[in-house]
Amino acid sequence: MYVPAHFANTDEQSAAEWLRLYPFGTLISSDGGALLATSLPFILDDRTTNVAVISHMAARNAHAAALEDGQDVLVVVNGPSSYISPRWYGSPVNVPTWNYVGLQLRGPIELITDRAGMYEVLERTANVFEAPAERPWKLTDAPTDLVERLLGGIVAFRIGPCRMECMEKLSQNKPADLERITRGLSSEGDELALAVARLMAGKAASS
């Protein structure tokens, strides 16, 4: 991943927070030279000091059959992003660009094949995403036979330890134009642009 130094977030803990906020990513792996990609939700495996993630996919997915224990894979996660117009700069010597947050994790994949391990992946995934609810749904709320069928139809896995790279391109290289760019995003942009504007404002306040 190309990450210029002024856009890099090298703090693993804060970089990992992007995965908590935007957990839907793309798993990419190679099968005999062919690239395979599947979009999946990922959660951090917080039982280890190393960065690791867990997820699962449908066993009927051809990608699942191509996964091998120990194989190096790539997970790509994208946060908010937006177009940046040259109209929002003080100088005319500028061109359009794109502000965004991106996260990439690389590491070996470990297939989880025992029932207890597969159940735990499903249980922990549900617990993470149900946590904000007043009365969270639990895997034990589902009928036992349904859970058993589900376990028979998935491939669960863990990826890690991961090498993580985080890009936070939020106009840090244009400090004199930050306010103008933020105003432009806020007045002309969509919801993603507003999210980028808030991130830029937060970055400026913390610098």
> How many strands?
8
Uncertain runs? none
H/E topology pattern: HEEEEHEEHHEEHH
Largest sheet: 8 strands, antiparallel
Query: Within the CATH hierarchy, at the fold level, what is the topology?
Result: Pnp Oxidase, Chain A
Cα Rg: 20 Å
Please, what is the average pLDDT?
Answer: 94
The shape, in one word, is elongated
- What would you say the CATH architecture is? Roll
Distance between the termini: 24 Å
Find the CATH superfamily. Electron Transport, Fmn-binding Protein, Chain A
Q: What structural category arises from helix and sheet content?
A: alpha+beta
Assess the beta-strand content as a share of residues.
Answer: 25-35%
Count the DSSP helices: 6
Number of domains: 1
- Give the class-level CATH name: Mainly Beta
The helical percent reads 25-40%
